[in-house]
Amino acid sequence: MSDGEPAQIYPSAQAPWPIHMPRAMGNFLRMNSIVSLTINPALDLSTSVDELRPCSKLRCTGERRDAGGGGINVARVVKRLGGDPLAIFPAGGPIGAYLADTVSKENIRSIVVPIAGDTREDVTVSETTSRRQFRFVLPGPRLTESEWRCVLEEFTSHLSQGTFAVASGSLAPGVPDDFYADVAHVAKEKGAKLLLDCSRAPLQKALQAGVYLIKPNLREFQGLIGQTLADEASRIRAARNLIAAGQVEIIALSLAEEGALVVGRGFAYRVRAPVVTPISTVGAGDSFLGAFAAGIAATTGRLDAVVRVWTLGVGIGYGRYPATDGVWEGGHTVVTLDDKENYCGCGGRGHLEGIMGHRAMRLRFLDMEPEEVFDAAKKGDTRCSDFKKLWHKALAAATASSIHLRGPGKFYLAGFNVRFVDMAMLNEYLHQMVKMSPLQSYSLEIITDAQETRIIGAAVSAHTKA
Q: What's the number of domains the chain is made of?
């Protein structure tokens, strides 16, 4: 891909595996080890008022306390996505004890390095009338050299070949700007991959040491590059320059409501964000990095022997893990010998996409939309009921062919037309087609599109191509 070529945009109705990955990752995935480092953790206190006014006593509505700091937030997300991360951080005083206890109650494995100072509190206040949010971030306790070196040594001792090391967050007072550069050096020595989220001088010095991945936001990235990056092409060029210099392998540029831009050597992905009403932006970047780390760890962890995905959209996408060389045009699998089945966009006869593809269904039923066809089938319309059976038989046939060629395993169904899937009917047809006992240990599961799957999918693809 040239610098001027636009990024590939995901998710897509025909996106290749592994863009779509299951939301409930813990059901099938054992990730490689993920160890997070938070050198300046905080107890995040959140509350709300009607309106912030100076020199007035403001009555707050409710309060919430969460363990915070970049690496801790990352570990929380990885845990919720089915991983078993280890969070390492310093803590001191009553607030530090409360923070450590909160992490423990979330069932996140942790190692706490005691310090003399008191762990900081950060305060977030939301105005209910304007929906504005005000964040008050304290500097944190000053760490002595022996304290921050102890944290670094503890972190280093838990790195090994294949570990994904995630360092995120600001530096505590007393910690030198080249701290994350030291982290990068020890990660390399241990054969671990460092995913880093920081900014300014600490990021610049870490890049000189070389890291696997960085996750700046646009403001941080422009500060790093020293220029305004007004469009996607300029952002891709800037990212490629850093990559070509050997400072980083992957750059995951978070763009708030615009999603993210993921750039590596020879590829660039644009991940669109869903339209939501934000409740709080606290920890948003860390959540992105946590999902990304989980997605990357998935590619080097252990999935079932083979995992396959059918993406049911305008066309029919097919993908598999582990990835192997091949054409993988699963949507053009021949599932019928009927000469009348010629609705596939490629012009071929009997193709899966010619039956199941959204475009093909609209061509077949010129007087009805696909939604109307399946709705009419529910009401007993003979023509539509027969097509519904054909639709499910076609998917069952393509799935059975894959099983007979590669063996059983997990099949995930993704894409906007999974809404039409009758799982009982599909399983019944598949059972009729796969009769050999050793091949019957397969399973089918529907995946609904979500921001998690988009971020994880982009992470997996970036890692696969890096």
A: 2
Q: Report residue 463's pLDDT band, with 50, 70 and 90 as the boundaries.
A: low
**Does 264 share its domain with 141?**
yes
Burial 261-276 (b: 16+ CB within 10 A, else e): bbbbeebbbbbbbeee
Phi, psi of 447 (to 5 degrees): -110, 125
Give percent helix, percent strand, percent coil of the chain, each to the nearest 5. 40, 20, 40
Distance CA 55, CA 57 (A): 7
Of these residues, 3, 286, 339, 386, which one is catalytic? 286
**Residue pair 37/151 in contact by the 8 Å Cβ criterion:** yes
pTM check: above 0.85: no
Sequence-separated contacts (24+) of 278-282 with Cβ below 8 Å: 280/46, 280/124, 280/126, 280/133, 281/133, 282/44, 282/46, 282/68, 282/124, 282/135
Active site residue 286: yes
Cα distance between residue 450 and residue 362, in whole Å: 26
Domain that holds residue 225: 8-20+29-302+456-465
Helices (H), 85-169: 93-105, 145-157
In this model, does residue 27 exceed pLDDT 60?
no
Count CA atoms closer than 13 A to 45's CA, side-chain side.
Answer: 13
What are the tens digits of pLDDT across the range 49-102?
Answer: 999 999 889 999 888 999 999 999 999 999 988 888 999 999 999 999 999 999
Instruction: Please check whether residues 204 and 254 belong to one and the same domain.
Output: yes
Based on the domain organization, do 298 and 314 belong to the same domain? no
For residue 414, what pLDDT is reported?
A: 87
pLDDT tens digits for range 310-340: 989 888 988 876 666 777 788 999 999 999 9
- Between strands 63-68 and 316-321, the pairing is unpaired
Per the rule left: phi > 0, alpha: psi between -120 and 50, beta: everything else, 463 is alpha
Give bridge partners of residue 252 from the DSSP assignment: 262
Q: Which residues does residue 334 pair with via DSSP β-bridges, in sequence order?
A: 351
Helix (H) or strand (E) holding 465: helix 451-465
Determine, yes or no, domain membership for 3.
Answer: no
